[in-house]
Amino acid sequence: MKEEFSFINDYAYVQNMRYDSHIKIQYDIDPEAESCRILKMLLQPIVENSIQHGIFERESKSGDVVIMAWLEDGDILFTISDTGMGIPPQQLVNILDGTGAGSGSNIGIYNTNQRLQLLYGERYGLQYQSAYGDGTEVHVRIPAIKYREKTLL
């Protein structure tokens, strides 16, 4: 999980340098969740969308992304929230189907959701909540799979 957070921090750093913006990434991670494995590049596309289509849509080009993770009923739950522009209701309806009703194709989000459901089943994946003008929350559910300690046989 730490590697994923490193990718996210690096991405935000580059965007801050490139656009002279002020994007702040905050984490609230339950230590139990931190001891679990996650797919590579699971959260980064979500954070990228939060910045590109949320925060950068604001005139100030600044805002916060908060990433939370905790364990619940044998799963890891993530919430990625941003202080960006939010998603218009007509786009929010189709955000996970890859039809590209808005400024982008939604293909990264579509692929991330599809990958999770193919690997883990339909109860897993992404859910979006947004209020246009007030930001977006993305909820991610995956099974909690603990790292195994290496043992010598």
Could you describe the 3D structure shown?
It is a single chain. This protein is of the alpha+beta class and 153 residues long. The chain has 5 helices and 7 strands. The chain has helices spanning 2-19, 31-34, 44-54, 89-92, 107-120, and strands at 22-29, 36-37, 62-72, 75-82, 125-131, 135-143, 145-146. The protein has a 5-stranded mixed beta sheet with strand order 1-3-4-6-5. It has a two-stranded antiparallel sheet with strand order 2-7. The protein is globular and about 45 Å long.
Concise description?
The protein is 33% helix and 31% strand. With 153 residues, the chain is of the alpha+beta class.
Return the average pLDDT rounded to an integer.
Answer: 90
Q: What structural class do you assign from the helix and strand content? A: alpha+beta
**In percent, how helical is the residue content?**
25-40%
Unreliable residue stretches: none
**Number of DSSP-assigned strands:** 7
Counted by DSSP, the helix tally is 5
Terminal Cα span: 27 Å
Percentage of β-strand residues: 25-35%
SSE arrangement:
Layout (H helix, E strand, L loop, with lengths): L1 H18 L2 E8 L1 H4 L1 E2 L6 H11 L7 E11 L2 E8 L6 H4 L14 H14 L4 E7 L3 E9 L1 E2 L7
Parallel strand pairs: 1-3
Antiparallel strand pairs: 2-7, 3-4, 4-6, 5-6
